[in-house]
Amino acid sequence: MPLPKLSKVGLPAMKNLIQFHIASIILISIIVSQNSLADQRPNVMVILCDDLGYGDLECYGHPAIKTPTLNRLAADGIRFTDCYSAAPVCSPSRVGLLTGRSPNRAGVYDWIPNADKPASNKRHLVHMREKEKTIASFVQGAGYATCLVGKWHCNSEFNGPQQPQPDTFGFEHWFATQNNASPSHRNPNNFVRNGSDAGAIEGFSCQVVADEAIHWLEQKEKDKPFFLYVAFHEPHEPVASPAEIVAEYLDDARTEDEAQYFANVANMDLAVGRIMKSLTRLNLDENTLIIFTSDNGPETLNRYRSANRSYGQPGPLRGMKLHTTEAGFRVAGIINWKNHLPQSMIGAVNQTTISSLDLLPTICELAHLSLPKEMHLDGTSITSLLQGNELTREKPLTWIYYNAINEARVAMRHERWKVLAKLDGGSLPKLTNVTKDSLPLIQQAKLTDIEIYDLKNDTSERQNIAQVNRELTIELTERLQREYQNLVMDSHAW
């Protein structure tokens, strides 16, 4: 509106009116700025495979399996060579990914069985407790639409009032199983949708999961950014794949079971491709951050009775799933963010050490969220890395897996170095859970038999240099001891 004439209002009134107009302009600027920030917040889709080996994708060197969708995501994004999961086994890995914290802090030490009967080690009680805050919890509070499709495996009492369920942790829509697709990937009958049994479903699990994800994307509120967590069951046993895809691999595989595995990974790639096409069709691809990874390394063939199709490959890495050597938790890691990554990073193979623990602080930073200062995170935001800068990881990655197949129960990745240690010379009994009775055992355990590997030059962990460089060994041992004590003293006991 026009300013009044000076002769009628006087200097004091004129001054007040000018201040009013200035304040109005500032307020409008703040509102515009906030709206601009909201518009810049990315959609996020995290795709998690189950038991996918480091060497199972075509873009990671598999000689037979064709994964054209993931090849394109890597070619148009970043493929990481040193990406780690939060644990070498499923449940703790998923808890770590969602919370940005070591799963030991949450009291999830191993895979969570269904709570069908009490166990002496209280394993039937294990679940992600309500006090834990997840990626979905934070972004839902900031106005994001949130959805989980696929494998949950973060509690023993699934879809019941005894323990928190996915909606407790910020997922407004969830379509999930407690653990594996049952009876196999083909025609699963154990999915639950928002608390109601979905019944028998025709098709293969990864395509069923893709169907639900696509339908949710079509139906969600259009003005909201979204967080979509796609947790495939593939290629975890019991493996089952479409016959027509299996036929494509019979000439490449040694057995039909191996062809089934190859087809399982290929079918997952097709499912990712369908979701990607839906993002484009719905005009959601321009600002969607896509993160693809696995919960742990590949299963060992015939380790248990129904693992006859576990033909996953660790690539050049030592060990398999359930090991604290590299193949247990070094996994595929692909990040794609159309039109947002620096041109110099597009198609790059990046050797920076990253972890699934980094997802929560990274996504929250991109969503302009401040995290509580008292929240004890073990991951770090990699936003600067996605902007083309070098990432400085001040806190090393530390794993304590008390039920490891190999004798080293403790591992640490710090810069180029990998450190392994036994507990009490290997005499500490294996533990699938930590209770108040067993807590003193792990708190008092001593780190012994230190191994050190230079992963920059020795990815396969063949040359233990602990006895070669004593100064380095002392430094890294002291660091590992600090990290171990920090984690053990904050570990939840059931």
Layout of helices and strands:
Elements: H1 6-40, E1 43-49, H2 68-75, E2 78-84, H3 90-99, H4 103-106, H5 135-141, E3 145-151, E4 173-177, E5 192-193, E6 196-197, H6 205-219, E7 226-231, H7 243-249, H8 256-281, E8 288-294, H9 326-329, E9 330-337, E10 348-350, E11 354-355, H10 359-366, H11 383-386, E12 397-400, E13 410-414, E14 417-423, H12 439-444, E15 447-454, H13 470-488
Parallel strand pairs: 1-7, 1-8, 2-10, 2-11, 3-4, 3-7
Antiparallel strand pairs: 2-9, 4-5, 5-6, 8-9, 12-13, 13-14, 14-15
Helix pairs in contact: 6-8, 7-8
Q: Would you write up a description of this structure?
A:
The chain is of the alpha/beta class and 494 residues long. It has two domains: 42-395, Alkaline Phosphatase, subunit A, CATH 3.40.720.10; 398-488, Arylsulfatase, C-terminal domain (2-Layer Sandwich), CATH 3.30.1120. Helix content is 31%, strand content 16%. It contains 13 helices and 15 strands. Strands 1, 2, 3, 4, 5, 6, 7, 8, 9, 10 and 11 form an eleven-stranded mixed sheet that branches. Strands 12-13-14-15 form a four-stranded antiparallel sheet, with helices on one face. The chain starts with 5 loop residues before the first helix and ends in a 6-residue tail after the last helix. Mean pLDDT is 93; it is low at 1-9 and 11-38.
List descriptors.
494 residues, alpha/beta, Alkaline Phosphatase, subunit A, Arylsulfatase, C-terminal domain, 2 domains, eleven-stranded mixed sheet, four-stranded antiparallel sheet, 13 helices, globular, disordered N terminus
